[in-house]
Amino acid sequence: KNDGMIGNIYSMGLVLQALDATSKFYAPRKWDCTQAFSVVYKHDYTLPMAIAQVLPALVGKSYLNASKLDCARSSRSPLCSSPFPADSITVHYSITNNLQGKHFSFSITVHVPAGSTLLKVLQEAENEEPEKFSFKTEQTSWGPMVVSIHKLAASTNDKTYWQFFSGKEPLQEGVGTYKPWNGEHIEAIFSTY
């Protein structure tokens, strides 16, 4: 893409490693990694799997040498990020099922500390209105995955899942890492694949 993103934020670490390792095979032009690295520098990686994949590209070292990363000297690295700000943000959260059983659509506005993940938004919505916004997650190597909302569970047999959107754009990150902005509208839609 023109903004430097290759695939999505989770694939960037592997893509950068692969492109760097195979750059001598590109002809007739050299690969310019500036835009791709700027995408990685702007992201706050928190999941161990994503960090493990992006770290070699960021520090230009192998996994064995990665432990020598000096955060005091490497302020540009997203791995050495500062704590979250303490102010609160407002997030509008909706859940919609027009696919199975009794259809529903509920919305709520919640306040969470700035820098909170989407998971915190879901937890706050559940705390305020548990009969509507209850949810369940399963832990994966990429972090928590939402498998049920409002007692409607995703199913591999039915090829259904809960897809999250910011406005009309699908989120490229999971609930454990995505950080909503103040005034954002997040929608979870029961979907098929």
TrEMBL record:
A GO molecular function held by the record: cobalamin binding
Pfam families: Cobalamin_bind, DUF4430
Record localization: Secreted
Source taxon at top rank: Eukaryota
Ranges for domain Transcobalamin-like C-terminal: 115-187
A GO cellular component entry from the record: extracellular space
Binding site for cyanocob(III)alamin: 8, 53, 171, 193
BP GO terms, sorted: cobalamin transport; cobalt ion transport
Keywords: Cobalt, Cobalt transport, Ion transport, Secreted, Signal, Transport
Main location per the UniProt record: secreted
PANTHER family: COBALAMIN BINDING INTRINSIC FACTOR, TRANSCOBALAMIN-1/GASTRIC INTRINSIC FACTOR
Family indicated by similarity: Belongs to the eukaryotic cobalamin transport proteins family.
Protein name as annotated: Gastric intrinsic factor
The organism's taxonomic lineage, starting at the top: Eukaryota, Metazoa, Chordata, Craniata, Vertebrata
